[in-house]
Structure formats: C-alpha cells, structure tokens
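Think of the structure tokens as a kind of shorthand, similar to the way a musician reads notation: each symbol stands for something richer, in this case the local conformation of the backbone. In the example below we present two proteins back to back. Begin with the first one, reading the sequence and then the tokens, and try to describe in your own words what changes along the chain.
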Amino acid sequence: MPEIETARLRLRHFTLEEFDVLYRLYSNAEVMRYLSPRTREQTQASLRKHIQHWQENNFGMWAVIHKDSDKMIGRCGLGFLENTPEVELGYVFDKSYWQMGLATEASIATLKYGFLEVKLDRIVAIAHPQNVASVRVIQKVGMKYQKNARFYNSDVVYYAVTRKEWHPDDSLYILQTEIA
C-alpha cells in the first residue's frame, strides 16, 4: 500500500494500534469543534472505516506522522462526501501542530495522490464558514469556492478543484510503495 513522504511528514495507513492516539484527537473538544467530538465507540468505528476504505477504494485517510518526532499528529486523506459519489479532502490535526502549514502540506500531497495515482477527475472539500483556518487551507491547496451547502447536518462552504485546474508543487511529494 502506498505511503507518502513530504518535507516534514509521512502519510501512512492506519493500524488498529493507533486507537488511543486517534481517540485523544477525536475526543478533544477544541480539535473537533467543527466536526463534533467522538466517543470511544465512534472512534473505533472510524478507525475500522479508515482501514476498510483503503481496501475497497485505493484511497482513504492516512495517519499523519511528524518525521522529527515520529508521532502521529493527525489524519488527512480522501473519502466520499456524505450521500454523494464525490470524493472529499479531509483532515484533523492535534492542536499543538496548528499554524505550522502541516495541514496544507499533507493536503497537497493527498490531492496529488488523488489526481495522479487514483486518477480522480475532481476533489471537493467542505468547511464551516467560521472555521477560518480550514477554509484557508482549502484555498491554499488550490480549491475554488463553489457554493454554500449543507452536509453532515451543518451549513458549510463547498470548494472543488479538477485535475486540469490543479497545479501541484512537485517538491512536496514523494510516493513510496511497500516492497513485498
């Protein structure tokens, strides 16, 4: 299965052993302010879903590892937007790693994987309008505002970018594959 390496990050597949770290992230009210915190059971279901999504679709959420500390600091990847066939970019990072450009770095690598490896034609992203930091990441990775919408029981801003419109920064991405 593919892994991605950027200047500061490794994006790799989740394992069941990462439950505790993911739960700390998903149960943090400030980190999950715009997504809603998750219980232990919801986190366990999410972790299994992250793993299964990769097996079924050749894309999904990666565990984001900070290379300097070798710690999992968040998740970033692609999934299906609620009740649609559209593929959505999503990310969540530990608060101590906010405002360092890491969500942007991971998102650029994720988009590049989606467009160049999976051959997706279009990727979307949504955010609460009040989540200024998330909206800024979406804009920085080249997505364009399309409309206001409602997903996951929330009013959101909806952005999108097509493969033709997107211009990656080639220096941020190295695809690695496991050698069996």
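Once you have a description of the first chain, move to the second and do the same.
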Amino acid sequence: MRAEPVADTPCLTLGEGPVWDAAAQSIHWIGIPDREVLTLHRPSGRLAVLELDVTPGTLMPAAEGSPVLATERGFESLDTATGRTELLAAVEADRPDRRMNDGKRDPYGRPVAGTMQRTGPQQPGLLYRLESDGSVRPILDGLAIPNGLAWPEPDRLWHIDTPTRRIEFYEYPEHGPVGRRIRSLDVSHLPGMPDGMTLDEAGNLWVAFWDGGAVHCLSPEGRLLDTVEVPAPRTTSCAFGGPGLDTLFITTARSGEHPLSGRLFELAAPGVRGRA
C-alpha cells in the first residue's frame, strides 16, 4: 500500500500528532518548530492554520472545553480562535533544555505526554499525566524520546521509547504510575526507528517509522501484517479518521532530498477501521 499526499497541505519542518475530531469531521496535526496547529476540514477541504506563541509537542482535543497542548512549558489550554495558550501546569520548569513531546488523552480523559532533551547530551525523560485536580504526576521514567501512546483497554498501555527500537506493553492502573511491563516488541529488524502510532479496531498497531519511509502494521504479538509506503522518509505519526474511521492520516517531517516530505499523507484502508 502507498500513501498519497493530501492536497494543499504544507511541508512542515516537523509535522506530528495527527488526531481525528469526529464532531468537526476534521483532522488536526501540529508543526513543532513551526509553532502551528493545522486543521483540515474533510468535507470541504478547507485548511486552517493557527499560529502559536509556544513550541507544541502534541495537541489533545477535548469532548468539551478547550483543547490541551503539551508544550515546552508544560500542559496548556488552547484558545482555538486566537492561538493564545494558558498554562495549566508547568512541567520541568527548571529545565529549559527540555520540552514535552508526543502525548494523548488516556481512557479517563486525562492528558498524558512525555519529556525529551531539546539541546545538549541526551538525558532520560519522563511520562507525565495531568490529573483531574490540576496537578502533574510522573508515571513512567527513564525514557529517551517518549512516543507512540495507545490504550487498547483502559488498563493497558502501549508505549514507544524511540531510540530503544522497542514497543512496550504495560499495565495501566486508573490511579498511580504505570504498572508492570507485560510484553516488549523488538522492531529493530524494520528500517528506521518507531515514532508515533495508533491502533485499529482489531487491536493491531500501526507504527510510523522515522527514517523508514513507512507505517508498519503489527499484531499485538509483533508479527508484521502490512506495510504502508510513504514517499517521505521521516514518517512521524498516524491516526485513523474519516466518517468510517477507515482513512489513515500520516504526518511527516521535512527532508531536503524529498520534495513531498513534511506533508500530510492519507491512505484509504478498506476493511480496516480505527478506534473511536
């Protein structure tokens, strides 16, 4: 299978974090160093670009109220009309060399995102959760570049730490830190490094591979089921969307030798459905 670029979407320096908004029938994604939130309304093809005053790591829409951004400062609410943000909770405020990276809302609606080194030698980061009372709790430590969060069930978490080239499966209690590791999938035999991911209705993992130019579909046991080729080597993340949740949207980062890199891509995936 081969993904195609979505018409009239820009080439971002680092596109990331696609998320489908069913109520608005729109796909949202971000440009990290570009400091942008992009929204493509699928029925009309209308593209909106919202400029930010902070560097985002990911966008987490809400069923009600304002979306939450994980940024260089911490968790922030976003005014979608103006692009202004309001800090909800600082994260690692004493570490200007670090920023928040990939994240999603957990099954209980709480934003979860990790931190990574922005400058200087790589040092371990953590996965943080914004609790319902507004406090921030570290829930998993020792991570280099936290990526690829996905919950197949409320009490189970898939998570990627990119440089390890492994996808870990954990217990995820409703309260407290991430629990014991249940399974570890080694994907070092596949080109590139695992970055963002999503799950389909059957529980299979769709994983974007940085410098791999592909999204690979893996069974929960790690068996390679399918491959989506992307004409941009730095594939960063993916999400299912569309009215039937049967379109796979793929974000990419710019690469000088590849004119389509940095664009948003899509693939019609008949017979496959994402999870709402």
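Compare your description with these statements about the second chain. The radius of gyration is 17 Å.
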